[in-house]
Amino acid sequence: MPVIRTLSKVAKQVLLGTPGCGCQPLTVAARNVSFSPRQVTSDASFHSVSFSETDHPKVLITGGLGQLGVGLAKMLRKRFGKNNVILSDIRKPPSSVFHSGPFIYSDILDYKNLREIVVNNRITWLVHYSALLSAVGEANVALARSVNITGLHNILDIAAEHGLRLFVPSTIGAFGPTSPRNPTPDLCVQRPRTIYGVSKVHAELMGEYYHHRYGLDFRCLRYPGIISADSMPGGGTTDYAVQIFHDAIKSSKFQCNLRADTRLPMMYIDDCLRATLEVMEAPVDTLSMRTYNINAMSFNPEELALELQKQMPELEVTYDVDHVRQAIADSWPMNFDDSNARKDWGWKHDYDLPELVQTMLDIFAAESRMARSH
Ligand SMILES: NC(=O)C1=CN([C@@H]2O[C@H](COP(=O)(O)OP(=O)(O)OC[C@H]3O[C@@H](n4cnc5c(N)ncnc54)[C@H](O)[C@@H]3O)[C@@H](O)[C@H]2O)C=CC1
Ligand SMILES: CC(=O)[C@H](N)C(=O)O
């Protein structure tokens, strides 16, 4: 149901006395009144599960089979217990993932199915990872619009109706050519030129609106490009920084699709996932905002190649620029100002460029030793 139409109905459906969000004390008068953003049955409050009723949060991760979801599930399962974290996606999970903990099919465009999963599993935290990334989004704007915008509306409504704590990642891609690029602060002009960026600005604003309007416990981090060894990126502009490791190990040759001097903010996956857990666990009074930049390092392809060549002098890097990706990268931040995250909830990264490269190479070396021993 379109959100605007729903909201006008909602304005008439004030459910006095039903807490808007079971997770947090409400801080402004408007939030003491709960609105249901969709038309819901009169017993809908029955489904609201207060976080304090459970020992651990019960977490659902959407789009969980992408670059980030499996690692997040592993980390959250260690902390909250295997059965308290459900991975979901529309793709078929590899058997290692299927056997490592609960997995469920969920298409975020299917509102009823999502609601059923949340209710039947008494979900209290929702981590919304489903999305089409920047380069893939430009290749399929209609699908990106549907998944990244319509899908988000479903997620917001379900999270608000069921009193969930909701995490939605945003990205350096939520900024554009008219934003300050070096560094980019939390609050500045945001006029991205990709459907991905537009959908992420929309997500930031809608999440913050639902927070102020309905008391939704919305939390959002703008991730830099994420680098991981055991999961492949899903069609972004920063993918080169993962691909270079695979190609370096396989053939000692790498053809980069961005110019050598294209500087972008980047982060190792362990820092990204830890930041996600930290902001989800942050006491509400430490959050002066609901959307934060986080950062770790900033480099260009030439600098990454030089760091790799310290350990692999035989690595040859050539450049064959993809004009779509280059135009996107040229409109994105070069450096990210994450001082608010550091000040408010103590964000601190562990990995700079040398540690990142060493860690990635160590993981690949361990994998190849294991493969040889089998
Ligand atoms: N990987 C990165 O460098 C960054 C990622 N992010 C954000 O983090 C989140 C996760 O990113 P990745 O794991 O890298 O993305 P990915 O592209 O690797 O995975 C996205 C997943 O969403 C799933 N999906 C697509 N349509 C769906 C639908 N209708 N219903 C349910 N699932 C659907 C896909 O099957 C895929 O497994 C995304 O929202 C992305 O925007 C933000 C900044 C950087
Ligand atoms: C930075 C991102 O959001 C993503 N990796 C992309 O390049 O699209």
Topology (elements, then pairings):
Layout: H1 3-10, E1 14-15, E2 34-35, E3 59-62, H2 69-80, E4 85-89, H3 95-98, E5 103-105, H4 111-120, E6 125-128, H5 134-139, H6 141-161, E7 165-167, E8 170-171, H7 195-214, E9 217-223, E10 225-227, H8 240-251, E11 253-256, E12 264-268, H9 269-281, E13 291-293, E14 297-299, H10 301-309, E15 316-319, H11 323-330, H12 339-345, H13 353-373
Parallel strand pairs: 3-4, 3-6, 4-5, 6-7, 7-9, 8-9, 9-13, 10-12, 11-15
Antiparallel strand pairs: 1-2, 12-14
Helix pairs in contact: 2-9, 4-6, 6-7, 8-10
Report on this structure.
The chain has a domain of 243 residues: NAD(P)-binding Rossmann-like Domain (Rossmann fold). Helix 2 packs across helix 9, helix 6 packs parallel to helix 7 and helix 8 packs parallel to helix 10. Helix 7 links the parallel strand 8 and strand 9. The protein is globular, with a radius of gyration of 21 Å. The longest helix is centred in the middle third of the chain and has 21 residues. The chain contains 13 helices and 15 strands. By secondary structure, the protein is α/β, with parallel strands linked by helices. Bound molecules: 1,4-dihydronicotinamide adenine dinucleotide (NAI) and 2-amino-3-ketobutyric acid. 2-amino-3-ketobutyric acid (AKB) binds next to loops.
Distance between the termini: 53 Å
Give the biggest sheet. Answer: 8 strands, parallel
Assign the CATH architecture of one domain.
Answer: 3-Layer(aba) Sandwich
CATH topology of one domain: Rossmann fold
What is the CATH C level class of one domain, in words? Answer: Alpha Beta
Which cofactor or ligand species appear?
1,4-dihydronicotinamide adenine dinucleotide, 2-amino-3-ketobutyric acid
Order of helical and strand elements: HEEEHEHEHEHHEEHEEHEEHEEHEHHH
CATH superfamily of one domain: NAD(P)-binding Rossmann-like Domain
Which class best fits the helix and strand makeup? alpha/beta
Oligomerization: single chain
Q: Please bin the fraction of helical residues.
A: 40-55%
